[in-house]
């Protein structure tokens, strides 16, 4: 009989008892056994993940946001497949993988799915090592993430980021960056430097160029050069309508190891969370984690 361990936060605003019960029901109806101890403190998710690895469970199911996902992913690697049940603000990885947003349907996708390897990014910044599944970067996006409060995200979801962006972009200016990709050095004037593991930074609306994939074994550096609100909105609109083309304000560089330095300290984010200030190093572990995905 297959076994699952569900990681969730009973005190989170988006977590309701009846939703957890619905998730349990999907697993048990499929003949699985499932335990859902719940977390009380930030480190509890990692301790529960360790317990799951030790116990040899078949799936670590995560009902939460991208922060919990990348923390658990960095902890367990590919030892145990992860099952994603969106319960956060962005749910960026789940969106890139086209997983259902409805918790019960997401649980069904787990029990009917198969494990697939995807890449795992690692960020080293200000002496700390963290992991990301979608993207990390520096610039206006990180400033927007840092300026959006937890209560606003819980109340307004992605709308909270949009409201903050409106204030940030109006006063944002480019700075000089030195970027080293696999020992090749580049210099850019940029508003934002994104290191992407997935193609979509806001699924399914804002997409980067074709060829970026979560299982290609490389990261993709995306450099955005735009000053102020008008230029930035123009570039983002081009991303939205998929017409960036050869626009020199958007540069792409693939690589496995990326070092980003800036002429002045800039905030850094990973998967939508504040992560420090520049400089930082990002690298990738090809096939570093396994995620349960529906066939096809």
Describe this structure in words.
This protein has nine helices and 18 strands. The protein is α+β, with helices and mostly antiparallel strands. The protein folds into two domains: 3-112, Rossmann fold; 123-286, Tumour Suppressor Smad4 (Sandwich), CATH 2.60.200. α1 packs parallel to α5 and α8 packs across α9.
Topology:
Layout: E1 3-7, H1 17-29, E2 33-35, H2 44-55, E3 59-64, H3 66-76, E4 82-86, H4 92-96, H5 103-111, E5 114-125, E6 128-132, E7 135-139, H6 140-146, H7 150-156, H8 158-171, E8 175-181, E9 184-190, E10 192-196, E11 200-202, E12 206-207, E13 219-224, H9 228-240, E14 250-255, E15 257-262, E16 267-270, E17 273-277, E18 280-293
Parallel strand pairs: 1-2, 1-3, 3-4
Antiparallel strand pairs: 5-6, 5-18, 7-10, 7-16, 8-9, 8-15, 10-13, 11-12, 13-14, 15-18, 16-17
């Amino acid at each position: 009989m297959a076994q699952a361990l569900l990681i969730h936060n009973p005190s989170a605003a988006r977590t309701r008892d009846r939703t957890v019960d619905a998730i349990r029901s999907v697993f048990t109806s499929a003949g699985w056994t499932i335990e859902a101890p719940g977390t009380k403190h930030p480190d509890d998710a990692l301790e529960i993940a360790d317990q799951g690895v030790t116990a040899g469970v078949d799936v670590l199911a995560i009902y939460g946001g991208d922060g919990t996902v990348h923390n658990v992913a960095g902890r367990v690697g590919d030892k145990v497949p992860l099952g994603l049940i969106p319960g956060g603000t962005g749910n960026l990885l789940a969106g890139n993988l086209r997983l259902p947003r409805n918790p019960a349907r997401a649980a069904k996708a787990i029990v009917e799915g198969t494990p697939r390897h995807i890449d795992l990014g690692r960020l080293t910044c200000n002496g700390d090592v963290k992991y990301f599944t979608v993207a990390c970067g520096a610039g206006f996006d990180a400033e927007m993430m840092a300026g959006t409060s937890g209560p606003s995200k819980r109340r307004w979801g992605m709308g909270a980021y949009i409201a903050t962006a409106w204030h940030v972009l109006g006063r944002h200016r480019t700075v000089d960056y030195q970027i080293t990709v696999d020992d090749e050095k580049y210099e850019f004037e940029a508003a934002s430097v994104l290191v992407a593991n997935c193609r979509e930074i806001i699924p399914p609306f804002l997409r980067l160029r074709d060829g970026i994939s979560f299982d290609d074994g490389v990261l993709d550096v995306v450099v955005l050069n735009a000053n102020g609100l008008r230029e930035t909105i123009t570039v983002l609109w081009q991303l939205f309508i998929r017409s960036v083309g050869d626009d020199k304000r958007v540069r792409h560089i693939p690589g496995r190891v990326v070092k980003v330095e800036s002429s002045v300290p800039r905030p850094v984010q990973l998967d939508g969370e504040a992560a420090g200030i520049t400089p930082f190093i990002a690298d990738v572990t090809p096939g570093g984690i396994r995620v349960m995905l529906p066939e096809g």
